[in-house]
Design brief:
Largest sheet: 6 strands, parallel
Number of domains: 2
Low-confidence stretches: none
CATH superfamily of the largest domain: NAD(P)-binding Rossmann-like Domain
CATH class of the largest domain: Alpha Beta
CATH topology of the largest domain: Rossmann fold
Distance between the termini: 49 Å
Number of strands: 11
Oligomer: single chain
Bound molecules: nicotinamide-adenine-dinucleotide
Strand order of the largest sheet: 1-11-8-7-5-6
Order of helices and strands: EHEHEHEHHHEHEHEEEEHEH
Strand content: 15-25%
Structural class: alpha/beta
Length: about 280
């Protein structure tokens, strides 16, 4: 059996087309996203440029703030204060990681929760846990959208999430639980990872280790979602050994072209929804 590809690029293109249409039809208001990058981390620069391009492609205003690596925490907090008060800005995103003199938790908590389109403010993570309407972090939201686009049912299924970060693993587990999956979360201290992954009907991997998940760790017929982005000399690879796992799984996301495009599409969606809520 060769798995069907979960084509994130195509699904994201459809989402973006729909957003562009809605932005065009929205009278009197242009959604605006402020993107803040501190320092010159190369991967972060690529990410923020892609976010800017994505905004422009659907008619969302992007306000880029590129600050030097020496920026003090107080200066960044001042900028966030201004963005919180700016009525043209409906979403604020501070690209992580930030330089060591800045505490990311203090920064994320300074963002107005009603403009927190990344969904990282504890107020919004709490609402997500409680099953209330809120900004859902973009990567897990994108994965849920992708699974829905392929009519993959979740109720009663065993979903295993590998990785417990605040950005991906934890919100992913909440969303799967809210859709009636039985959820197991594995992490760096899980003693026998394979024992858990082998029993997954839905396997979501967000670790950051190239090809950690091999075919022998996957139940035949499982749905495999690879969040990992690892830069190797041969190019980008995921956390799943795609070539062998695709022979065992029923559905699988490629890297690139799987989860990544949906993450950006959901950032645009969150920004649009924030603007419409105002
Ligand atoms: P993170 O470093 O914050 O968390 C990694 C998690 O993996 C931790 O919870 C850790 O406990 C777990 N872990 C580490 N080694 C493990 C092991 N051997 N076995 C099991 N668990 C292990 O990372 P993150 O921010 O959640 O990102 C994870 C990966 O996803 C990275 O490659 C990142 O680049 C990628 N990512 C991709 C997107 C996207 O849009 N495609 C978005 C966010 C993150």
């Amino acid at each position: 059996m060769t798995a069907q590809i979960l084509d994130g690029k195509k699904v994201a293109t459809d989402v973006r087309a729909q957003i562009a249409k809605e932005v065009e039809q929205t009278e009197g208001i242009t959604p605006g996203l402020a993107v803040v990058l501190v320092g010159d981390d190369q991967a972060s620069q690529v990410y923020v440029r892609n976010k800017e391009k994505a905004c422009n492609s659907v008619g969302i205003n992007s306000f880029m703030h590129l600050l030097p690596a020496s920026t003090r925490q107080e200066e960044l907090l001042d900028l966030i204060k201004k963005l919180n008060a700016d009525s043209k800005v409906h979403g604020i995103l501070v690209q992580l990681p930030v330089p060591p003199q800045i505490d990311p938790d203090i920064i994320l908590q300074a963002i107005d929760p009603t403009k927190d389109v990344d969904g990282f403010h504890p107020f919004n993570t709490g609402k997500l846990m409680a099953g209330l309407k809120t900004f859902v972090p973009c990567t897990p939201r994108g994965i849920m959208h992708l699974l829905a686009a392929y009519n993959i049912s979740l109720a009663g299924k065993h979903a295993v999430v590998v990785g417990r970060s605040n950005i991906v693993g934890k919100p992913m587990a909440s969303l799967l639980m809210a859709r009636d999956a039985t959820v197991t979360v594995c992490h760096s201290k899980t003693s026998d990872l394979k024992e858990f992954t082998r029993s997954a009907d839905i396997l979501v991997v967000a670790v950051g280790r190239p090809r950690l998940i091999t075919a022998d760790m996957v139940k035949p017929g499982a749905v495999v979602v690879d969040v990992g982005i690892n830069r190797l000399p041969e190019g980008l690879v995921g956390d799943v050994d795609f070539d062998t796992v695709k022979e065992v799984a029923s559905y699988i996301t490629p890297v690139p072209g799987g989860v990544g495009p949906l993450t950006i599409a959901m950032l645009l969606q969150n920004t649009l929804e924030s603007a419409l809520d105002k």
